[in-house]
Design brief:
The chain has a four-stranded mixed β-sheet with strand order 2-1-3-4, covered by helices on one side. The protein contains nine helices and four strands; from the N terminus they run βαβαββααααααα. Strand 1, helix 1 and strand 2 form a beta-alpha-beta unit. Helix 1 runs parallel beside helix 3, helix 4 runs antiparallel to helix 5 and helix 5 packs across helix 8. It is globular, with a radius of gyration of 17 Å. The chain is of the alpha+beta class. The structure holds glutathione.
Length: 213
């Protein structure tokens, strides 16, 4: 059985949980008390992930980190959601890299500052991040104008990676998708209909925290 280290506010953890459920694989969650600083301790970094990040996936003796690596590993191992040809697999990798650099990373940071940071966010920093987000969301929205899923005609881990933070309440980020990125909106509806989709707060460990700012 897979063991997934993470917590419910973590969309990066959700990506892995969504794929495990879509693949119908048994897994158990391992709660990581991120909000109280566990991943910043030397002990956690020495024993679990030197990068100080979740998600972490244990598959028996094998331990993997970085959601893109984990998604690629699971897609390859179970022969699904990875793309059906070499060209599709490369296209999936292209979007995973874009997601990790410019989509999830900016969105997760923006949402963390707005919802969970110990101090009120700096307006100038938020405005800069919002500009980066508007560009990245525009790129994905335009790509989805011509297709139902990011790569090929079927869902892949590119979709599962990009959507990781987009099912959380809009109030947590204050970043509105509805009415601004219509192709992303309809794509999210398609993803919600996939086997394995669930609300992150229903399947991942930890307590709900109301947005702070
Ligand atoms: N690229 C990494 C990002 C992981 C990540 O940033 N995880 C957050 C929690 S959702 C974290 O552990 N952040 C700690 C930090 O940024 O120091 C992935 O996709 O796994």
């Amino acid at each position: 059985m897979y063991r997934l280290h993470g917590f419910c506010q973590s969309g990066n953890t959700f990506k892995v949980a969504f794929l495990l459920r879509a693949l119908n694989q048994p897994w158990q969650p391992q709660f990581v008390d991120f909000m109280n600083g566990v991943t910043r301790t030397g002990e956690w970094r020495d024993t679990t992930n030197e990068m100080g990040e979740v998600p972490v996936l244990d598959d028996g003796e094998r331990r993997l980190t970085q959601s893109g690596v984990i998604l690629s590993y699971l897609a390859s191992k179970h022969g699904a959601y990875g793309g059906r040809s070499e060209d599709e697999r490369l296209e999936v990798l292209r979007w995973l890299l874009f997601d990790n650099h410019k989509f999830t990373s900016y969105f997760a940071t923006y949402r963390f500052m707005k919802a969970f940071a110990p101090a009120a966010p700096d307006a100038a920093v938020m405005a800069w991040l919002r500009g980066r987000l508007d560009n990245s969301f525009g790129v994905v929205d335009k790509h989805l104008a011509q297709r139902s899923f990011m790569v090929g005609g079927e869902p892949t881990i590119a979709d599962i990676s990009l959507c990781g933070y987009l099912f959380y309440p809009a109030a947590e980020s204050g970043y509105e998708i509805a009415g601004r990125f219509s192709n992303i909106e309809t794509w999210l509806d398609r993803l919600r209909a996939l086997p394995g989709w669930a609300n992150p707060y229903d399947i991942l460990p930890g307590d709900y925290i109301a947005p702070r700012w």
